[in-house]
Specification:
Blueprint lengths: L4 E2 L2 E5 L6 H21 L7 E6 L4 H15 L3 E7 L2 H10 L4 E5 L8 E8 L7 H11 L16 E3 L1 H13 L9 E5 L9 H7 L3 E5 L18 H9 L4 E5 L6 E4 L5 E2 L1 H14 L7 E5 L4 H10 L2 E5 L3 H11 L3 E3 L5 E3 L8 H15 L3 H4 L8 E7 L3 H6 L1 H14 L4 E6 L5 E7 L3 H17 L2
Helix pairs in contact: 1-2, 3-5, 5-6, 8-9, 8-11, 14-15
Length: 450
């Protein structure tokens, strides 16, 4: 992780950690950089950058700041407006853009925001370019302004978002007619996209938390507060429910009984489905170190291999691309189907879960048979300085003590978040009580030394 950019972009509280000036400078650099690349390679200019945003109030401010910087550097800015992150990745790739930018802080509260940079292949931008962006932000070099007819323009590109919706609909190989589906849009970027897709495929679609006002994104709803959807599915007799996060690159499920299905459940269900059809290329699923022990035991029973990457869908995708893996993801609900997308896509994930249900003529709860989650405790601790905490001797000591006590019957994972000023403490063990006790023991020491 760099000075400004973490595992999922440049993120911070709007006008504190991330300012309009930061966004303007990011636009200035990218506009100049991609125009310069075109000129060096004798390609037609100006360069084109596509921009999407979520429903945070500050997203408009960052959008206009980015556009100001981009066009001042002689590049054209194409606006998708409010749209999911994966749509920016899709359009960047299929419509030959030089790069894409998504304005979102994903699952964070409304007062945070972020800039996610995407390359022309719809993938997370390379560290080489990110490092140059950071150097420019630090004033290590300047870039020229464009003048006269070289100044860029802004293009309304809502048609790109509509094309993404059409693409998702094209992936629905079964009719959803007769299936009652609940969608929790987290008052975020999926609010006007997800329902359109499910309605087009014939589902009886019930949508909640699809009334964004700039302040309510992720507030007591969506994939980070899935208890709302659990209750709704039961009360309304739904066959299944899907919860997205603020920028809709995550998806978690609720079965017809109101049980939560994590990203690990989704990986299990779809990997098993792919293997049964001979579609699981390399017979390997890419997971992260946060995946549950139970998932690996279930994969072992099915004869499915798995890789463990660092936390972050960026690292999952890098492994998948390098090794030809078709399926990967995180427990949090970032699931990547590399045949169809280069990033996590929450709506695509929900379509794939519907596909398995309909193909196997099974209830969602039945698809989970054979996978038993180990008890787990996950506590997020806000801290002043993540690196200082993790280098603290008292913290290192308690981590060693708990790890030794758990032995081979469980595990402790303590890591810094790549997107928030948070230390994540996770314990897996044979009982929930043991998990909670050990997790709280570590958290207490962290708080004492914060």
């Amino acid at each position: 992780m760099g000075k400004y950019f973490g595992t999922d972009g440049f993120r911070g509280e709007a006008n504190k950690g991330l300012t309009a000036d930061h966004a303007y400078k990011v636009g200035r650099f990218l506009g100049w950089y991609y125009n310069n690349e075109k000129e060096k390679n004798n390609l037609p200019s100006p360069a084109k950058i596509v921009i999407g945003k979520d429903t945070r109030r500050s997203s408009y401010m960052f959008e206009y700041s980015l556009v100001g910087g981009i066009v001042a550097s002689g590049c054209d800015a194409y606006l998708l407006h409010v749209t999911p992150t994966p749509s920016v990745a899709y359009i960047a790739r299929v419509d030959d853009f030089d790069c894409g930018i998504m304005i979102s802080a994903s699952h964070n509260p409304y007062y945070d925001n972020g800039l996610k940079l995407i390359n022309s292949q719809g993938e997370k931008m390379s560290d080489d370019v990110i490092n140059l962006v950071e150097d420019y932000l630090d004033g290590k070099f300047e870039v020229p302004f464009a003048y006269k007819d070289r100044i860029g323009c802004t293009v309304d590109y809502v048609s790109g978002r509509n094309r993404y919706i059409g693409y998702l609909i094209s992936l629905g190989i079964y009719s959803f007619r007769g299936v009652k589906v609940a969608l929790d849009c987290a008052n975020g970027a999926s609010w006007h996209v997800a329902k359109a897709v499910f309605d087009a495929l014939g589902a009886k679609t019930l949508v909640v938390n699809a009334e964004p006002n700039g302040y309510n994104i992720n507030k007591d709803c969506g994939s980070t507060h899935i208890e709302y959807l659990q209750k709704f599915v039961i009360e309304n007799g739904c066959d299944v429910g899907f919860a997205y996060d603020g920028d809709a690159d995550r998806c978690l499920c609720v079965d017809e009984k109101g049980n939560i299905l994590t990203g690990d459940h989704i990986l299990y269900i779809y990997a098993k489905y792919m293997k049964e059809r001979g579609k699981l290329l390399t017979n390997t699923v890419a997971t992260t170190i946060m995946s549950n022990f139970g998932l690996y035991k279930a994969f072992d029973a099915l004869g499915i291999g798995y890789a463990k990457t660092k936390v972050g869908d960026k690292y999952v995708y890098e492994y998948m691309k390098e090794c030809g893996c078709r399926l990967g993801g995180e427990q949090s609900g970032h699931i990547i189907f590399s045949k169809y997308a280069s990033t996590g896509d929450g709506i695509l994930t929900s379509l794939k879960m519907m596909e398995v249900m309909l193909a196997k003529k099974a209830k969602m709860s039945e698809l989970c048979e054979g996978f038993d989650m180990y008890p787990q405790a996950l506590i997020n601790v806000r801290v002043n300085d993540k690196k200082v905490i993790l280098s603290n001797e008292d913290v290192k000591k308690v981590i060693e003590e708990v790890s030794t006590s758990l032995g081979s019957k469980g595990r402790l994972l303590v890591r810094e978040s790549g997107t928030e000023p948070v230390i994540r403490v996770m314990v897996e063990a044979e009982s929930q009580e043991v998990c909670n006790n050990y997790a709280n023991k570590v958290v207490e020491v962290i708080k004492q030394n914060n």
